[in-house]
Amino acid sequence: MADDGAAPAAMPLRLMPVVAAALIDGEGRVLLQRRPPGKQMADLWEFPGGKIEPGETLEGALVRELAEELGIAVDAGALTPLTFASAGLGERHLLLLLYTIRDWRGTPRALEASALAWVRPAAMRALAMPPADLPLVAMLERLLQIGG
Ligand SMILES: Nc1nc2c([nH]c(=O)n2[C@H]2C[C@H](O)[C@@H](COP(=O)(O)OP(=O)(O)OP(=O)(O)O)O2)c(=O)[nH]1
């Protein structure tokens, strides 16, 4: 190939979109779940959510994940995009899209996680979370300081 000054062709970035939810209760606490033993990032506290399956929209994937992981029903219209994080994750690049949710039906149960906890954003700093989540926590803290 002729040297035209362009950057050398890189391996295509394997982008991995993941949708996640900050369920916010009436006291401004946010639901976290603990990743079960035996999984990648075991025992870290994360926002419920997961990967998008073929043919799904982002919102459809999040509604499905919340039903599978927590046993709750959420209307796609109740999902409010808050912010995102972009971080290297092994050979892939994680694009973690965080939505807030204040309305859902049912009581969250740990159907896949090893534990659930309702936590104020300021208290999340004391929990071990995936590195990509740290800027999301800062955004949530700001949102809940402003909005209550
Ligand atoms: N749900 C969620 N995933 C997160 C967060 N932070 C973070 O780095 N991740 C990563 C962990 C996983 O690599 C990926 C989420 O995908 P997942 O939960 O469907 O994947 P998994 O590894 O648990 O399950 P598998 O389907 O690969 O077996 O995103 C977070 O706050 N919530």
Automatic annotation (TrEMBL):
UniProt keyword list: DNA damage, DNA repair, DNA replication, Hydrolase, Magnesium, Metal-binding, Mutator protein
UniProt-listed InterPro entries: MutT-like, Nudix_hydrolase, NUDIX_hydrolase-like_dom_sf, NUDIX_hydrolase_CS, NUDIX_hydrolase_dom
Gene Ontology molecular function, alphabetical: 8-oxo-7,8-dihydrodeoxyguanosine triphosphate pyrophosphatase activity; 8-oxo-7,8-dihydroguanosine triphosphate pyrophosphatase activity; 8-oxo-dGDP phosphatase activity; 8-oxo-GDP phosphatase activity; metal ion binding
Domain of life where this protein originates: Bacteria
A biological process from GO: DNA repair
Catalysis: reaction(s): 8-oxo-GTP + H2O = 8-oxo-GMP + diphosphate + H(+); 8-oxo-dGTP + H2O = 8-oxo-dGMP + diphosphate + H(+)
Enzyme class: hydrolase
Cofactor(s) in the UniProt record: Mg(2+)
Annotated Nudix hydrolase domain residues: 14-141
EC number: 3.6.1.55
PROSITE patterns to which the protein is assigned, alphabetical: NUDIX (PS51462), NUDIX_BOX (PS00893)
The family this protein is said to belong to: Belongs to the Nudix hydrolase family.
Protein name: 8-oxo-dGTP diphosphatase
Native source organism of the sequence: Sphingomonas liriopis
